Amino acid sequence: MLIKTRRTWELPESAATPESVYMNRREWLKGAGFAGLGLATSGLIGGGMAGTALAAIGGYPFPRNEAYELDRAMTDEELATTYTNFYEFGSSKNIWKKTRKMSADPWAVTIDGMVEQEMTLDAEDLVTMMGDKQERLYRHRCVEAWAMAVPWSGVPLANLIKVARPTSGAKYLRMETFMDPKVAPGQKQAWYPWPYVEGLTIEEAQNELAFLATGIYGKPLPNQNGAPIRLVTPWKYGFKSIKSIVRFTFTDQRPKSFWEELAGKEYGFWANVNPGIPHPRWSQKTERMLGSDARVPTMIFNGYREQVEGLYANLGITDPRALYY
Ligand SMILES: Nc1nc2c(c(=O)[nH]1)N[C@H]1C(S)=C(S)[C@@H](COP(=O)(O)O)O[C@H]1N2
Ligand SMILES: [Mo]
Question: How many other C-beta atoms are found inside a 10 Å radius of the C-beta of residue 293?
């Protein structure tokens, strides 16, 4: 009989017994008297204890949430999955084949910082705990002025906060991409501040639009689009939508993101889309949809003003540019 072996940080029984998640897995194994049995064996025990098998991130296609409509044609699947930004694999858009070296299953995700209980669990278990799997059609606007419109599969980011139970002092959610230069040769380029980091305020992370994607076009994410789990914040420039996340940290300090660290005058923390505020080196008035040479007008908050405007009303920010780069 073939049994899928699991590593100690995987929690196959988490859906059935969520309490176990709030205990450190290794502590739990030790407490249960299974220390030193080895990875494969402990996985077996983990599965056997709950008496239930948990499916991989499955169930595609996720049911469409019709609340999110597009005003334009969906981007061709082949284009959206072969023209990608993933600097870990190089600075060109044509890196999709290089990402084959990555393995997204299993995938350990850590939730730490200002939370009631830190935890590390497998991405599929996290997504199962978050619930509310759905598909949403979103526009995407890269700061470089190309754009696309795609169907993402995933779960609302707000549900992660429910699972994580941050303490009252937490003001920001910091996210981090994996770090493995053997897999991602771009990470050998030491002038970049690896690993890739992004951040949101807790209010932004709780906004209905903030989404954790596990799939695209009704299928699991290909590696190049950020497998197995990536952020999607469609009202912000694309660089905020961090790929292949391994860590969510709740903090009272505003995170400094990868691009902010590299060029803070060009790529800031807020990065809300605004056609009226040019990038220091180019206009943001229009955008080019992948697959077309025509330029279309860029919309304030990328067309999501109604949903997000309130987030920025009372921040006391006086620099008119601050929220939009
Ligand atoms: N870890 C990581 N996340 C990342 C990037 C990256 O280079 N590394 N690029 C960002 C940028 S600039 C954009 S526009 C989007 C692109 O997403 P896509 O390639 O799935 O279209 O991913 C964002 N997330
Ligand atoms: Mo981007």
Answer: 6
Q: Give pLDDT tens digits for 236-271.
A: 999 999 999 999 999 999 999 999 999 999 999 999
- 28 Cα to the center of ligand 2, angstroms: 42
Give residue-wise pLDDT tens across range 281-302. Answer: 999 999 999 999 999 999 999 9
* Contact status, residue 148 vs residue 73, Cβ threshold 8 Å: no
Q: Distance between CA 156 and CA 136 in Å, rounded?
A: 10
pTM of the model: 0.85
Distance 84 CA to ligand 1 centre (A): 7
The answer to whether residue 45 is domain-embedded is no
In this structure, what CATH number is given to the domain that contains residue 256? 3.90.420.10
Give the C-alpha separation, 109 to 284, whole Å.
35
Residue 111 maps to a domain = yes
- How would you class 299 by CB atoms within 10 Å of its CB: exposed for 0-12, middle for 13-18, buried for 19 or more? middle
Q: For ligand 1, atom 11, name the residue with the nearest CA.
A: 239
The residues near 3 (Cβ < 8 Å, ≥ 6 apart) are 44, 47
